[in-house]
Amino acid sequence: MKKSAMYVIGGLLVAVLIVIAIIVSNSNSSPNNLSNSNPTPPIINPSDGSQDSQGLSGSQPLGQDTGDVTTVSETHNIKIIDFAFTPLTLTVNQGDTIVWTNVDSAKHTVTSNSGSELDSALLGKGESYSHTFSTKGTFKYHCTPHPGMTGLVQVM
Q: Please, which residues bridge with residue 97 across strands?
């Protein structure tokens, strides 16, 4: 083999080694690297003010039920306008409250089709009726003076 060919092969070998070194070097500093030079700031436990520098205060392994579930109830609004309940159908969670507000000049009610879950008095313009749903189910309702006005609440 000629000396010039050996120099070319040697040069290519050096170039390949340099490329490999660069790739290895970059892989050690990539965002996917699990080592982190930034320490985790301490977490303050709001219940007792203690700190946990590992950020594990009160933590549980995934899938383990601690029994501490906080449910936040929401308030939803239904307007009575132009002889209609708006929205016509509403899906809420158990424990949520719905407030029906009459913005019509005519008086209206919110009355269950069956049972007595919903039973408002006649609501004049600007008056409201609210109900908190404690049981799951489908609740159909109507306006007593205007039976064509209907609505539906689905409680999950």
A: 75, 132
Encoded tokens for 37: 């030079």
d(CA 150, CA 51): 55
Domain extent at residue 151: 75-155
Of 74, 78, 84, give the one whose Cα is nearest residue 129. Answer: 78
Strands (E), the chain: 43-44, 51-52, 75-80, 85-86, 89-92, 97-102, 111-112, 128-132, 137-142, 150-155
First to last CA, the chain: 82
Provide the domain count of the chain: 1
Q: What is the pTM of this model?
A: 0.56
- The string of pLDDT tens digits covering residues 10-58 is 777 787 778 787 777 776 554 444 444 455 555 555 555 555 444 444 4
